[in-house]
Write a structure and sequence with these properties.
- Helix content is about 65%, strand content about 10%.
- The chain is built from 2 helices and 2 strands.
Length: about 100
């Protein structure tokens, strides 16, 4: 059972069908919560191909994060070196 349905016709008009009785909405809510509470867990298939794909994706994600971190550290180091060099140059000119 749904809480409502939206239907569009050929003239781009939209019709909305909804339940209007509060008892119906409460029954739907109770049914949904019971389904969530007492449903059986979904078992994953023992497909080694799926596991291999997941492991490959996890490895790609790991190396992508390592590349991102190294790149960030390199940029920060370059920025630090640049600011040190500019301050040192300004000090030699007597501006600091």
């Amino acid at each position: 059972m749904d809480l409502g349905v939206v239907i569009q016709d050929s003239q781009s008009r939209v019709d909305v069908e909804m339940i209007t009785e509060e008892a119906d909405a409460n029954a739907l809510y109770d049914e949904a919560t019971n389904n969530l509470k007492y449903r059986a867990p979904v078992m994953r298939p023992n497909d080694s191909r799926v596991l291999a794909v997941e492991k490959e994706q996890a490895a790609k994600d790991y190396y992508a994060s390592v590349r991102t971190n190294v790149s960030t550290l390199r940029c920060l180091g370059t920025l630090r070196l640049l600011t040190w060099r500019l301050c040192l140059g300004a000090a030699r000119l007597g501006r600091v």
